[in-house]
Design brief:
Structural class: alpha+beta
Strand order of the largest sheet: 1-2-5-3-4
Radius of gyration: 18 Å
Helix content: 25-40%
CATH architecture: 2-Layer Sandwich
CATH topology: Ribosomal Protein S5, domain 2
Number of strands: 5
Largest sheet: 5 strands, mixed
Order of helices and strands: EEEEHEHH
Number of domains: 1
Low-confidence stretches: none
Mean pLDDT: 91
Strand content: 15-25%
Shape: elongated
Distance between the termini: 69 Å
Length: 134
Amino acid sequence: MSDNSLIDVGKRKTSVASAVVRKGAGRIRINSVPLEIHVPELARRKINEPLALAGEKALSVDIDVSVRGGGFMGQAEAARTAIARGLVSFLKDEQLEMVFRQYDRSLLISDPRRKLPKKPQGRGARKKKQKSYR
Protein backbone atom coordinates (compact mmCIF):
# COMPACT_ATOMS: atom_id res chain seq x y z
CA MET A 1 0.00 0.00 0.00
CA SER A 2 1.38 3.42 -0.94
CA ASP A 3 1.28 6.53 1.19
CA ASN A 4 -1.36 8.25 -0.99
CA SER A 5 -4.16 5.79 -0.17
CA LEU A 6 -6.46 5.61 2.82
CA ILE A 7 -8.25 2.71 4.54
CA ASP A 8 -11.62 3.12 6.25
CA VAL A 9 -13.95 0.60 7.91
CA GLY A 10 -17.74 0.17 8.01
CA LYS A 11 -19.75 -2.32 10.07
CA ARG A 12 -23.35 -3.59 10.04
CA LYS A 13 -24.61 -6.54 12.08
CA THR A 14 -21.83 -9.14 11.65
CA SER A 15 -20.47 -7.73 8.37
CA VAL A 16 -17.19 -5.82 8.30
CA ALA A 17 -16.02 -3.89 5.24
CA SER A 18 -12.70 -2.14 4.73
CA ALA A 19 -12.35 0.32 1.85
CA VAL A 20 -9.03 1.39 0.32
CA VAL A 21 -9.41 4.79 -1.35
CA ARG A 22 -6.73 6.09 -3.74
CA LYS A 23 -6.43 8.52 -6.65
CA GLY A 24 -7.74 7.00 -9.86
CA ALA A 25 -10.37 6.99 -12.58
CA GLY A 26 -13.53 6.23 -10.57
CA ARG A 27 -13.32 2.41 -10.46
CA ILE A 28 -15.10 0.71 -7.54
CA ARG A 29 -14.56 -2.98 -6.77
CA ILE A 30 -16.31 -5.05 -4.09
CA ASN A 31 -14.27 -8.19 -3.24
CA SER A 32 -12.43 -7.78 -6.60
CA VAL A 33 -15.74 -7.62 -8.53
CA PRO A 34 -16.57 -4.33 -10.35
CA LEU A 35 -19.59 -2.57 -8.84
CA GLU A 36 -21.34 -2.51 -12.24
CA ILE A 37 -21.73 -6.32 -12.24
CA HIS A 38 -22.17 -6.83 -8.47
CA VAL A 39 -25.29 -8.88 -7.69
CA PRO A 40 -27.99 -8.61 -6.38
CA GLU A 41 -29.09 -5.28 -7.84
CA LEU A 42 -30.68 -4.09 -4.58
CA ALA A 43 -27.33 -4.42 -2.80
CA ARG A 44 -25.59 -2.65 -5.71
CA ARG A 45 -27.98 0.30 -5.41
CA LYS A 46 -27.36 0.49 -1.67
CA ILE A 47 -23.58 0.52 -2.19
CA ASN A 48 -23.91 3.17 -4.92
CA GLU A 49 -25.72 5.73 -2.70
CA PRO A 50 -22.63 7.57 -1.36
CA LEU A 51 -21.13 7.63 -4.87
CA ALA A 52 -24.30 9.16 -6.32
CA LEU A 53 -24.38 11.80 -3.56
CA ALA A 54 -20.68 12.65 -4.08
CA GLY A 55 -21.22 13.04 -7.84
CA GLU A 56 -18.17 14.38 -9.71
CA LYS A 57 -15.92 14.11 -6.65
CA ALA A 58 -16.16 10.28 -6.69
CA LEU A 59 -14.84 10.11 -10.28
CA SER A 60 -11.30 11.09 -9.19
CA VAL A 61 -10.77 8.11 -6.85
CA ASP A 62 -10.53 4.31 -7.08
CA ILE A 63 -12.11 2.33 -4.23
CA ASP A 64 -11.37 -1.32 -3.39
CA VAL A 65 -13.72 -2.76 -0.77
CA SER A 66 -13.08 -6.02 1.04
CA VAL A 67 -16.17 -7.23 2.90
CA ARG A 68 -16.78 -10.41 4.90
CA GLY A 69 -19.30 -11.85 7.35
CA GLY A 70 -23.08 -11.62 7.49
CA GLY A 71 -25.60 -11.67 4.65
CA PHE A 72 -25.60 -9.79 1.36
CA MET A 73 -27.58 -6.76 2.60
CA GLY A 74 -25.50 -6.45 5.78
CA GLN A 75 -22.39 -6.57 3.59
CA ALA A 76 -23.88 -3.93 1.27
CA GLU A 77 -24.60 -1.58 4.17
CA ALA A 78 -21.13 -2.13 5.65
CA ALA A 79 -19.53 -1.44 2.26
CA ARG A 80 -21.66 1.69 1.86
CA THR A 81 -20.49 3.04 5.22
CA ALA A 82 -16.84 2.23 4.45
CA ILE A 83 -17.04 3.97 1.05
CA ALA A 84 -18.71 7.10 2.47
CA ARG A 85 -16.22 7.40 5.34
CA GLY A 86 -13.32 6.77 2.98
CA LEU A 87 -14.47 9.47 0.55
CA VAL A 88 -14.88 12.06 3.32
CA SER A 89 -11.48 11.23 4.85
CA PHE A 90 -9.59 11.05 1.53
CA LEU A 91 -11.09 14.22 0.01
CA LYS A 92 -11.12 16.09 3.37
CA ASP A 93 -14.43 17.63 2.32
CA GLU A 94 -16.68 18.92 5.12
CA GLN A 95 -19.40 19.90 2.63
CA LEU A 96 -19.59 16.26 1.47
CA GLU A 97 -19.78 15.12 5.09
CA MET A 98 -22.76 17.42 5.71
CA VAL A 99 -24.52 16.07 2.58
CA PHE A 100 -24.01 12.48 3.82
CA ARG A 101 -25.26 13.33 7.33
CA GLN A 102 -28.40 15.02 6.03
CA TYR A 103 -29.16 12.12 3.67
CA ASP A 104 -28.60 9.27 6.16
CA ARG A 105 -26.66 9.18 9.42
CA SER A 106 -25.67 5.53 8.89
CA LEU A 107 -23.52 6.56 5.90
CA LEU A 108 -20.85 7.79 8.31
CA ILE A 109 -21.65 5.97 11.55
CA SER A 110 -21.57 2.17 11.81
CA ASP A 111 -24.69 0.51 13.18
CA PRO A 112 -23.99 -0.53 16.80
CA ARG A 113 -26.96 -2.91 17.11
CA ARG A 114 -26.12 -6.56 17.73
CA LYS A 115 -28.11 -9.71 18.43
CA LEU A 116 -29.16 -10.30 22.05
CA PRO A 117 -27.63 -13.35 23.73
CA LYS A 118 -29.84 -16.39 24.27
CA LYS A 119 -31.28 -16.82 27.78
CA PRO A 120 -32.00 -20.02 29.75
CA GLN A 121 -35.50 -21.61 29.61
CA GLY A 122 -36.07 -20.46 26.05
CA ARG A 123 -35.22 -20.90 22.41
CA GLY A 124 -33.81 -17.42 21.94
CA ALA A 125 -33.24 -14.03 23.54
CA ARG A 126 -36.93 -13.36 24.34
CA LYS A 127 -38.95 -16.51 23.56
CA LYS A 128 -39.69 -18.74 26.56
CA LYS A 129 -41.19 -22.21 26.86
CA GLN A 130 -44.96 -22.12 27.09
CA LYS A 131 -46.56 -22.76 30.47
CA SER A 132 -49.78 -24.70 30.87
CA TYR A 133 -51.76 -24.41 34.10
CA ARG A 134 -54.41 -27.00 33.25
